[in-house]
Write a structure and sequence with these properties.
single chain; 420 residues; Aldehyde Dehydrogenase, Chain A, domain 1; Aldehyde Dehydrogenase, Chain A, domain 2; 2 domains; seven-stranded mixed sheet; five-stranded parallel sheet; 13 helices; 40% helix; globular; oxidoreductase; oxidoreductase activity, acting on the aldehyde or oxo group of donors, NAD or NADP as acceptor; Gamma-glutamyl-gamma-aminobutyraldehyde dehydrogenase
């Protein structure tokens, strides 16, 4: 399809997402427990914006003419890779699904999208809207089912040209194995994190830092890939800052995610809740202190809810400092110097995101250079838009979603060499 026609379809799809924003958000909330206020913005709103961004970007991608011997013409073409296999998680299925779909479709590919077993409703609705927007039949296919069946079939298929995935490291490793066993398809993996959030005594506003830090881990019950789950605090302000974060955390109202009066919704599943509570058991075993929370609540509702939880006296080698919880559990560690802060921040197999709070410009740049993550927030946490990439280093994966750089995954380069 000509780029101008692709543009029209993606803009129409963005229009339909906006028109059906509340329905899409509610479908997602029923699946994954995200609080509705957040889902409307982070799911429907983000998805519409993502499709508009790549609709506008797609006809700005050009081939190249190489500066070579004047007796030859060297041309570099950018072609669609073909069939994209996309596997997305349950925490923000519409947002993350759109990060994969929009640039892949913009570049002229077809997509087979597998939602998580526990969160497929909003993406099935998106497929309906895509058809209504004029996307040709077969270009987008949403296939539901167990990862061990459907995901494996997509990953092993000789007809799928690349895989894009957001999820756990264990599944990411299996996808790499399936690629090797099939057609050596490229795999782009975003595998989560254990993101450090560094608070220095000279932060411009410690009260704001405490409030944002609380929301940086407790929104969506901690089920966010970039959650600031390791809070590293300069020793001189440690006790006061923990108390301030706890004040904001304790004030958060946890409950029915469809109730607009609630601040935090549900944990996705009983399995996830049990995993979260297992980290509390580990904290006790490691000699950590449960400063706030640590319990399942609202069990009489039949839902899976957990208190915002703060754990102090965490040592760098403890489980809570090393493993991703993916729940509303914050581990706190003190530091005494810039070098110790960097060492603690990097003491992880992950490298997705991080945060730094300081008024010292030199220190901020030192932290940005020193912390090995794909994203570093300074005096804020969360919120980067489509203009900047999201991707990790180390065992947080490879490749990038969002920004113009995401489009690079979905094209192949072809060289033409012509003798004149």
């Amino acid at each position: 399809m000509a780029p101008a026609e692709r543009k029209k379809v993606l803009h129409k799809l963005a229009d339909l997402i906006e028109k059906n924003a509340l329905e899409l958000a509610v479908l997602g909330v029923r699946d994954n427990g995200t609080e509705l206020n957040m889902a409307i913005k982070a799911e429907s709103g983000s998805a519409a914006g993502t499709f508009r961004y790549y609709a506008e970007a797609l006809d700005k991608v050009y081939g190249e003419i190489a500066p070579t011997d004047p007796n030859f013409l060297g041309m570099i073409h950018k072609e669609p890779v073909g069939v994209v296999g996309a596997i997305v998680p349950w925490n923000f299925p519409l947002m993350i699904g759109s990060w994969k779909l929009a640039p892949a479709l913009a570049m002229g590919n077809s997509v087979i999208l597998k939602p998580a077993e526990t969160a497929s409703l909003s993406l099935l609705k998106l497929a309906e809207l895509a058809s209504e927007a004029g996307l040709p039949d077969g270009v987008l296919n949403v296939v539901t089912g167990q990862g061990s069946v459907v995901g494996e079939a997509i990953a092993l298929s000789m007809d799928v040209d690349i895989l894009v995935f957001t999820g756990s490291g264990g599944v990411g490793r299996r996808l790499l194995e399936y690629s090797a066993r099939s057609n050596m398809k490229r795999c782009y993996l975003e595998l989560g994190g254990k993101s450090p959030n560094l608070i220095f005594a000279d932060a411009p506003n410690l009260d704001e830092a405490a409030k944002v830090s609380a929301m940086g881990i407790f929104r969506n019950s901690g089920q966010v890939c970039v959650s600031g789950s390791r809070l590293l605090i300069e020793a001189s302000i440690h006790d006061d800052f923990v108390a301030q974060v706890a004040k904001y955390a304790a004030a958060l109202k946890v409950g029915d995610p469809l109730d607009l009066g609630n601040d935090v919704g549900a944990v996705n599943s009983l399995t996830q809740l049990q995993g979260n509570l297992g980290f509390i058991d580990s904290a006790h075993a490691d000699g950590n202190t449960i400063y706030l929370g640590g319990n399942r609540i609202l069990e009489d509702t039949g839902g899976y809810y957990m208190e915002p939880t703060i754990v102090t006296d965490v040592k760098p080698t403890d489980r809570l400092a090393q493993e991703e919880v993916f729940g509303p559990v914050l581990g706190v560690l003190p530091f005494s110097s810039d070098d110790e802060a960097i060492a603690l921040a990097n003491n992880s197999i992950y490298g997705l995101a991080g945060g730094v709070w300081t008024s010292n410009l030199s220190r901020a740049h030192k932290m940005i250079r020193g912390i090995r993550t794909g994203v570093v927030h300074v005096n804020t946490y969360g919120g980067p838009d489509n203009t900047v990439p999201l991707g990790g280093v180390k065992q947080s994966g490879n490749g990038h979603d969002k920004s113009l750089h995401a489009m690079e995954k979905y094209v192949d380069l072809k060289t033409t060499w012509i003798k004149l």
